[in-house]
Amino acid sequence: MGFNKADDAGIYRLDDKRALVQTVDFFPPIVDDPYFFGQIAAANALSDIYAMGGRPLTALNIVGFPDTKMPRQVFSDILKGGADKIEEAGAVIMGGHSIKDNELKYGLAVTGIIDPARIVTNSGAGEGDRVFLTKALGTGIIATGIKKQAVPDDLAELTIKQMAALNKTAAELMIQHNVNAATDVSGYGLFGHAYEMASASGVSIELFGSKIPLLPEALRMAGEGMNPGGAFANRDYIEKHVRFAPDVDANLTQVMFDPQTSGGLLVAIPADSAAGFSAALKEHGLLHEEIGQIVSRQETALIIRK
């Protein structure tokens, strides 16, 4: 499994019981603190492994560093943040590669292990499945606000904490509760990744706006124009695949186009497993919402109701 699908990671079978799952992700800083940037970048890279149902084993650092513009301590703090998060995931850093670059960039290539019989793809969603989201939306909007110094410290701290949180436990629980399809919500926003799941599965997804978990102030900030450029690119690409109910808040739709960094898992669970999955997530203290359901294929891949 690789480029033939828009899945989160590539799968290479070793034998009947084992396969490798591999991914890579890196980007410029979205927060000022280098240690937290390292943690967020690592959590983001690991999410692709978790979304496929895999267990991370090893990781390689990828760094572009402007060594004439920044102190070496920044470099060290970023790597420390990444290493601590990889250790939390139960994996190990095997090394990596750095280059001189005009713009700071950091991320990781991650390799994991997976049972070929238990691979979770984005193409298995079936009619009647319930759709869950395991983190709140709005990280792109709030990160834009942070850059403009328009976000209070407590909201910035909450957003950074969410982005640095691993999807490890949510992924383990979705497998225990008979997940049919999953993906992580990242740069294409909720709409983009939901569209990929609907398209790959040959179904439509009905989402309920009132159920979408949002970071505090994300709606207000969207209305004030603190939307990253990626949100508009996502809208240009995906909007034609979405049918909006007339009473859906325009600011809410903008948040649903918002590109996420280290977002939650978008999970399609059989209806008879949904309550157990929700209870298990709650028991572990994980934010989540049942945000919609899988329906038969309609004129558009996504249907948004109030």
What does it look like?
The protein has 306 residues and is of the alpha+beta class. It has two domains: 10-118, 60s Ribosomal Protein L30, Chain: A (2-Layer Sandwich), CATH 3.30.1330; 130-305, PurM-like C-terminal domain (Phosphoribosyl-aminoimidazole Synthetase, Chain A, domain 2, Alpha-Beta Complex), CATH 3.90.650. Helices cover 38% and strands 25% of the residues. It has ten helices and twelve strands. It has helices at 34-51, 72-88, 139-147, 153-164, 168-176, 189-201, 218-223, 229-238, 250-257, 271-283, and strands at residues 10-13, 19-27, 55-65, 92-100, 105-114, 130-133, 181-184, 204-208, 242-244, 265-269, 289-295, 302-305. Strands 7-10-6-11-8-12-9 form a seven-stranded mixed sheet, with helices on both faces. The protein has a five-stranded mixed sheet with strand order 1-2-5-3-4, covered by helices on one side. A hairpin with a 5-residue loop joins strand 1 and strand 2. Helix 1 (34-51) packs parallel to helix 2, helix 3 (139-147) packs across helix 4 and helix 6 runs parallel beside helix 8. The protein is globular, with a radius of gyration of 19 Å.
